[in-house]
Structures are given as C-alpha cells and as structure tokens.
Specification:
The structure is a single chain. It is built from 10 helices and 7 strands. The chain has 256 residues and is an alpha/beta fold. The strands form 2 sheets. Strands 1-2-3-4-5 form a 5-stranded mixed beta sheet. Strands 6-7 form a two-stranded antiparallel sheet. It is globular. 40% of the residues are buried.
Amino acid sequence: MPCVPNVLAELTLDAWLLARVGQDPSGTLVDGRIWERAVGDLLRRPGLSFRQGPGMTSLFGFRPASGIGHEIDGGAAGWSGSIILECKSQSCGVTKADVTLFHQKTLDFYCERPYAVGRERWWRLIVSSSPVSDALRAFCIQLGLILCDPVRLPLPVVVRIACRPSADLYLGETLLQEAVRMGKLALMPMQNRWAYDPITRDIRFKPRVLRADEFRDLLWIQDELGSDILDLYDLHRPGVLERRATMLHSKLRKSA
C-alpha cells in the first residue's frame, strides 16, 4: 500500500480542479445541491466500486449508533478503503460548526459497527467551492479530516508526489521528508485515529498525532510544495491540468 492511495490523490486533485472552475466569472458560487452532485460524480472512477449519492441518511447500508439519520453527501468504497464526502458551497468557506458536525456524523456511523468496520480504512473529505482559512485547515487536520478548497493543492496530492522515489530530483529534499513524515500522520484513516480493540471492545482515541507547531509547519509545507509541484506541471506537462479542469467544468454545467 503506497503512503497515500492513488485513488485518494487522484480524487482530491479533481476536487481541487473542480473547485477552481466552480465559480462563474462574476464570482457567484455554484448552487449547493449542484455542487454535491458534481463532487459526488468524482467518485465514479476505477478503484471505487460501491457508491452512494447525496441525500442518503445511512452509510454503506447501515444506520448510525444514535439511531438518528445523518445526511451524507457521498460515499464510495473500494479495495484500498472508503471515502466519505461533505460538500460545501458557501461564501464563508467552511465553518467550525461544519467541520464538527461532519466529524460527529461519521463517528456516529463508526460507533454503530466498530467490530465490522474497525479494520477498514475510511478517509473523510470536505470539499469546499470557496477558500478556507488556515485555522479551519488546522482544525481539520486535528480531527483527521481531509480538506479540499480552490486555493491549495490538496495534501494527499502533495504527499503522494513527495513519496515518489524520484521526487528529490525536482523538489527540495528537506521539504519532501517533512511532507512525508507529517503528511502520513495527518492523512491516517479514521480507524487509525479511533482504533477498535476487538478483545476489550473499546475504541481508543489518539488525541494528538501532531503538535500545534507542526500543524503550522505542515500547512506551510503544503503551500510551498504545492506551488513547486504546479510549476513542474507547467514545465513538464503544460496544459494537462487546464484540460482536465475544462472537462470537469463541462460536467459541472451538466449537473446544473
């Protein structure tokens, strides 16, 4: 298993591109329901065989432990793990309440069947069509959520590239090492943060995988390496991201 599954890096790259083309020239954000459908359509890719769309109040066929239905914007499962989506298209980006609610909803589903899903790998993604503050970015890392917004190259993309053996031929070695070290911790599946013990039937929470100063360092590294990676795309694969973005924009318009 690579340090970041290919499907996670590819999906978040497409989510970033989609967010960048999600606004019309006047700056008006895409409608929330349209955004949910467009992002959910990104789950239709090799490696993700089981999918559910927006509006469902169950997750992969089961209810949450509380018995209270929670709406999930999208989900998909494959051999490398499962991805759970929260989609936001609002001028404020993402709020603390949005992050906390999504975390609690997914935790409620996890607590229903920890004996069944405790050995699975869940990655939880928040995809915002507008920029998100650094404070919210750090908050997501602390809770084990992956954030995609239109400004920054997503962390799974940065870490996946940093893990490549030839990366140090093009990018700073120190930045790469720190990106891999901290990024792998930040991108751990939910089950690694809330580990289920089948003997005691307890869920053991790791309250901190990174220090507060490491949050800041990782956000800075994400920005620095992300910028360098985009420069390399322009140099070695000119136009490839733009063409992909155009195709995604076409799909977004069809979702309207």
